Amino acid sequence: MKAIAAPALVEIELPKPSPSGRDLLVKVEAVSVNPVDTKRRPEASDAQPRVLGWDAAGTVEAAGPQATLFKAGDEVYYAGDVTRPGCNSEFHLVDERIVGAKPKKLDFAQAAAMPLTAITAWEAFFDRLKVQPDKSMLIIGGAGGVGSIGIQFAKMARLTVIATASREESAAWAKTMGADHVVDHREPLRPQVEALGMKHVNYIACFNDLDQHWAAIGDLIAPQGAIVAIVGNRNPLPQDAVRAKSAALCWELMFTRARFQTPDMIEQHRLLDRVADWLDAGRLRGTLRETLSPINAANLRAAHARLEAGTMIGKLVLSGWS
Ligand SMILES: NC(=O)c1ccc[n+]([C@@H]2O[C@H](COP(=O)([O-])OP(=O)(O)OC[C@H]3O[C@@H](n4cnc5c(N)ncnc54)[C@H](OP(=O)(O)O)[C@@H]3O)[C@@H](O)[C@H]2O)c1
């Protein structure tokens, strides 16, 4: 089968795998790209090439002997497990407990845009922050992949949402996703939040550059509020401001459940099924903005370059093998 391997992102031939245990063998129809791809790419070498890609939609070709949730012919979407080979290949193995049934009304490209970011934002808000309705949330990085679905989940949870975006185009997109207010993360945040009539916010979701925004986060979080971060810090984070406010800081890594094979990893199957139902019912909007076709090395390299520019709005997907 065809596959695209890091570090150089070149096309290679690999044997078609066969599923064991609870794995599904998926015929991959579309893949999305995420910052995890560009971050992991340099870890590969010519001596140890690696297939990246952790967002896919496709059709189950075969199911392992212990699989019970899916069968051959089912259309699925999923992010996968970063400790295993990624989905930038014609066929791919994935544990069925982290796979959802593809939204019926979305095509493969639209579906592939969703899983990684939806799992991240869902777990951040509902499993880590355990958000309560009628409170306020600041989402830093509102127009990116995670922010685009995160804004929608926050509105479904009946929060007042202030999203950050620094350009006219990204600000407009964040509004389209449902943000009540948009502020600019390249300008001081406090005066912009105060201009909206708020002194503090109950929740802060940091979906970009935690180091840059940490001081503003400590300043803006409400006493007894809660912060979730999905990006790591490069430098130590002074705790005085958040400690004085008894604010909680939670981390969210969407690969944790798969990586540690937690007993509740099937929750990702359930949440992807719920998200698919809501997409089909029109309660959520898809976040796909652009599709490159076919899935090949040149298009994958172009997609990585786009992500590395840091100006993505919504999601970029590669669709169909040539
Ligand atoms: N922990 C996890 O499980 C997990 C999961 C997914 C992603 N992540 C991480 O979360 C981050 C965001 O992922 P993503 O997929 O949403 O990325 P993305 O789609 O590439 O994000 C692009 C957006 O980031 C905004 N942005 C750029 N610089 C910013 C800054 N300094 N402050 C605030 N916003 C900024 C841009 O807005 P403007 O153009 O308006 O400036 C752009 O819309 C990445 O670091 C990724 O690795 C972690």
List the helices and strands and how they pair.
Elements: E1 2-6, E2 10-13, E3 23-32, H1 35-40, E4 50-51, E5 56-63, E6 75-78, E7 91-95, E8 99-101, H2 108-112, H3 115-129, E9 136-140, H4 145-156, E10 160-164, H5 168-176, E11 181-183, H6 189-194, E12 201-206, H7 210-220, E13 221-229, H8 240-244, E14 248-251, H9 256-259, H10 267-280, E15 288-292, H11 297-308, E16 315-319
Parallel strand pairs: 9-10, 9-12, 10-11, 12-13, 13-14, 15-16
Antiparallel strand pairs: 1-2, 1-4, 3-5, 3-7, 3-16, 5-6, 6-8
Bound molecules: NADP nicotinamide-adenine-dinucleotide phosphate.
Residues 34-36, 117, 120, 140-141, 143-147, 164-167, 170, 185, 207-209, 212, 230-231, 252-254, 307, 310-313 line the site of NADP nicotinamide-adenine-dinucleotide phosphate.
Account of the 3D structure:
The protein is of the alpha/beta class. The protein has two domains: 172 residues, Quinone Oxidoreductase, Chain A, domain 1 (Alpha-Beta Complex); 138 residues, NAD(P)-binding Rossmann-like Domain (Rossmann fold, 3-Layer(aba) Sandwich), CATH 3.40.50. It is built from eleven helices and 16 strands. The protein is globular. The model has no long low-confidence stretch (mean pLDDT 98).
